[in-house]
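Re: zinc ion structure - here you go.
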Amino acid sequence: MVTATTATNLSYADGEIMKHLRWLYKERRLCQWCQHPKHLPKTKGLCNSCYQLARDYRKKPTDELGIAVSLARREGSIDPVTYPVDGLTIESLFEEVASAVFPWRKITDNPFFHSANTWGENFSKAQLRLLFHEFSMITRERQRRGRRAMAFNIVMYPEKYDKHKEEIEQRLLESKKTVEALFLRT
Ligand SMILES: [Zn+2]
């Protein structure tokens, strides 16, 4: 229950949280592709992992690498400062992390099912955002390491991604243009 007194305290804490998140994501130069707040850009405005991907693609522009480039850029498109975060977002992140830790667990055996209200009703918007950011440090690390495997799957089993065919083609085109532009720049 939020009383007038705790509301004041909360809003102070919320201000601090938002200041911290803005510093992490808005006030520093981040990797142009993945925008990861801890893997800062080293070469051509990219972090090591994205630059390696760009270099590999430039050497051998396969669909697989093109998709991996696109996945890296998509990670960067989710901005924890502005992304609409609510209780359900946090519930899904708990599930995602749990299924990464216990991949053999039954899908019906989900301890976080219906926990969205608990998050939504007891945490302020800024606190939810902070949780979102902290979780993203886990889920993004996983995506970062799994980009190429995911891209390989999409190329190997195109029938599974058939309904996204146009989107994938569009993304491949964008990856090509982005990498070309990156190496044109001096
Ligand atoms: Zn990056």
